[in-house]
Amino acid sequence: ILSSVGLSLGAVGKAQSGAAPPAPTPLLVAADLRPGTDLSGPWHYSVDPYRAGLAGFHGGEPNASERRWADIDVGATMRKGDGAMFEFDMDSAPITTLPASWLTHAAEMRYYQGLVWYQRHFQAALQNGKRVFLRLGAANYKTRIYLNGTPVGEHEGGFTPFAFEVTKLLRNGDNQITIGVDSAVTDTSVPPPVTDWENYGGITRSIRLIETADTYVDDAWVRLTRNGALAIDAHLDGPRAAGRSIRFFIPALGLSRAGTTDANGNWRTTIAAPRALERWSPERPRLYDVAIEAGDDRWRDQIGFRTIETRGSEILLNGRPIFLRGISLHEEELGVSPARVITPAAARALLTEAKHELHANFVRLAHYPHDETMVRAADALGLLVWSEVPVYWRISWGNPDTLATARRMIAENILRDRNRASIAIWSIANETPITDARNGFLTTLAADVRRLDDTRLVSAALLTERSTANGHPVMTMTDPLAAQLDVMGINTYNGWYGDDRLADVPAIEWRVPADKPLIFSELGADAKAGFHDARAMPQKFSEEYQADYYRQTLAMAAKIPNLRGLSPWILKDFRSPRRQNAFQQGWNRKGLMSETGQHKLAFDVLTGFYRGKEDGGR
Ligand code: GCB
Questions:
Q1: What is the pTM of this model?
Q2: Which residues does the UniProt record annotate as the domain Glycosyl hydrolases family 2 sugar binding (predicted)?
Q3: How far is the CA of 227 from the centre of ligand 1 (A)?
Q4: Does any ligand 1 atom lie closer than 6 A to the CB of residue 548?
Q5: Nearest to 387 by CA among 395, 376, 397
Q6: Does ipTM exceed 0.90?
Q7: Where are the beta strands (DSSP E) in 331-469?
Q8: Per-residue model confidence as pLDDT tens digits over 99-109
Q9: CB-ligand 1 contact for 219 (6 Å cutoff)
């Protein structure tokens, strides 16, 4: 699999690297279901706008006598007086509750972008033969971790998990953990500094110590292949990983298979799918308890089995054509002051609106990997998922470090979520202007996705150009990247941005390749909930205008032969600092609901359309 996928697709330009994408280690797949110690709760925090904690006294690199305060067990060494800086005193710094973005810690943190230090103590009881990993579900954007004064590791990227082994650094009894999170995004980061969403700095997802046996299942991928077999890949990590007995189970199917790992700790097997296996679908989201045992380690997950593929311009779920009745959402909980805390209840609240109010069968989790809780909720509720990385707008396409960051992010996302039946589409980019450098960058990402997961579809939200012909508007998509995608995504805002009148929208002609499925990955218009305009031509930002926009755009969509779904923008109003007019006041108002969940008129328009599609309608 490692050889040639990207390079042979050459129509667009060459992939910048044919090597395998870097896999994060340790991976700890399905870590959220492993036993461990939860470190969420009260933490001290301290802002560090000059990043002094990383520097010497005069800035720059610290010299030998000027150890960075962050490298030091602050409480203990300050008492010994060994030269530690006394400008930071975490033990008496203010306290907040993690996980949560710092935007809500204090009023003055609202627009802070930079470095914040967090610290807390916890008790540990060391056990022989056990390994311990510190795992963060995500921290935005750059993270540095210290345990008992020793640097543990660093991570870049705000939306994917990472873990470090801390077995040898843990002390029996009291331990001190310090985490520096820097939210600053730069021209070379992923995403870049200008986006249309709030840059929620901080530790926004779970913080846990995960305990495993000395040799444990680090990675496992259990899926239904397109030719109807259950395929299982497992990887053990630890001193006894090679030549180890391993066993796979699905108790509800009475299925069990034993084997032995190879010299690298890998085991792979395929099993004909049992007759009794129920396929996962939005209508019947059947999940099975799955386990893998190796020595004294037991790995478990809950997994659904289904196939997703394309045939011509159709998208097939379990072999049958499906229309994706979607909605987009950001990772932002309902409420007047979201802190990007996605608890299982918050995820359910959002996805239940999509599933049971809107009659959706599909969600676009924009514009970055969402909390694992969200994807698990989609698995359980029965919603197909478009999952993406924040390769958004103006990325530094020519910068090899930026490419390396994006590739690692894609790998972290796919390896975290390959076992989720809900995920149907991996998307590699959103609205990225076409250049040779960009084409090469995205070719590399598309090839990475196919190497890591050959069971799902690859997509991207592509840009279009507007022209006119015989007096009607024409939208054309000529992006060469389309040749490498299974599904083309297009964001359309005709009738909102630009000069098209709403009445002209249904007549728009779409010129896009017809040989593969197209989905409108976005469409939308702002409305302030409760702002009404009953005139025949309602003004923008009224609920009536937004509802009309949906009616006209859906009429337009009905005329596109290969349109196989849509994920309008967006379920709920979301915070965006670039939206400051009187209706917006810091919020993008394209939600079908307000930030507190009040439905706007357009919600019902889309619900009506989706109910019509539910009965097999196209
Ligand atoms: C887009 C972007 C999305 C924005 C949206 C808008 O095309 O992909 O991130 O929020 O338009 O509201 O303009």
A1: 0.95
A2: 40-211
A3: 38
A4: no
A5: 376
A6: yes
A7: 362-365, 384-388, 423-430, 457-462, 465-469
A8: 999 999 999 99
A9: no
Bridge partners of residue 408, in order along the sequence: none
**How many residues would you count in the chain?**
618
- Residues 464 and 474: their CA atoms lie apart, in Å, by 10
For 74, other C-beta atoms within 10 Å of its C-beta total: 24
The DSSP code for 357 is I
Domains of the chain: residue spans and CATH = 41-205 (2.60.120.260), 216-308 (2.60.40.10), 323-614 (3.20.20.80)
Nearest CA to ligand 1 atom 9: 196
450, amino acid identity: R
Residue 321, Ramachandran bin (φ over 0: left; ψ between -120 and 50: alpha; else beta) = beta
CA of 368 to the centre of ligand 1 (A): 13
561 three-state secondary structure: coil
> What average pLDDT does range 315-341 have in this prediction?
97
Ligand 1 pocket test target in 195, 196, 330 with most atoms within 8 Å of CB: 196
Tell how far the Cα of 357 is from the centroid of ligand 1, in angstroms: 23
**H-helix or E-strand containing 554?**
helix 543-557
Residue 232 pLDDT > 80: yes
Q: How far apart are the first and last CA of the chain?
A: 36
Atom of ligand 1 nearest to the CA of 576: 10
In 3D, which of 576, 592, 281, 247 has the Cα closest to residue 424?
281
Q: Report residue 7's pLDDT band, with 50, 70 and 90 as the boundaries.
A: very low
573 lines ligand 1 (CB under 6 A): no
Report which ligand 1 atom has the smallest distance to the Cα of 461.
Answer: 8
- Say how many Å lie between the CA of residue 196 and the centre of ligand 1: 6
Q: How far apart are CA 580 and CA 570, in angstroms?
A: 18
- Coil/strand/helix, residue 179: strand
What's residue 410's pLDDT? 97
**152 exposure class (CB count in 10 Å sphere: 0-12, 13-18, 19+):** middle
Q: Given pLDDT bands bounded at 50, 70 and 90, which one contains residue 52?
A: confident
**Token pair for residue 306?**
């289904």
d(CA 21, CA 206): 26
Q: Is 351 helix (H, G, I), strand (E, B) or coil?
A: helix
Pocket test residue of 395, 522, 540, 587 for ligand 1, highest count of atoms within 8 A of CB: 522
Is ligand 1 within 6 A of the CB of residue 587? no
Task: Assess whether the C-beta atom of 432 lies below 6 angstroms from ligand 1.
Answer: no
pLDDT in tens, 554-571: 999 999 999 999 999 999
User: pLDDT confidence of 69, banded at 50, 70, 90?
Assistant: low
